[in-house]
Design goal:
three-stranded mixed sheet; Hypothetical Protein Aq_1857, Chain: A; globular; alpha/beta; 2 helices; 7 strands
Length: 112
């Protein structure tokens, strides 16, 4: 399961309440792979897609393609500063590496 820090959850719920358009939930998308690393994107989504799986996290609906959920297990969403940027950050849990060189890239954090 994804963990969301209290401060991050509060910020996300406040953002959700301020939206003026209908919102199905917070979409979490992954781009990349375990060998090169992942880029995580967060965005409010008006609609759930047929390939999505939705999780209710203390009143916040998280949407992600079913195929992405194994990689999101153990992920943490945190609020704070990174590299001089303030925002919300997603850290993925490292998974088993099956790359040719047996060196897996670290995960990428992203800001909302």
């Amino acid at each position: 399961m994804i963990q969301i820090e209290a401060q991050a959850l509060h910020q996300l719920i406040n953002q959700r309440q301020q939206l003026t358009q209908p919102c199905a939930g917070l979409r979490i998308l992954l781009d990349g792979d375990t060998c090169r690393g992942w880029r995580v994107s967060l965005a409010w989504s008006a609609l759930a897609r047929s390939e999505d799986f939705a999780v209710d996290y203390q009143g916040l609906v998280l949407l992600a393609p079913i195929a992405h959920w194994p990689y999101l297990q153990g992920a943490k969403i945190q609020a704070g500063d990174r590299d001089g940027q303030r925002g919300l950050w997603v850290e993925l849990q490292a998974l088993a590496c099956h790359c040719d060189n047996q060196v897996c890239a670290s995960t990428q954090a992203t800001s909302l």
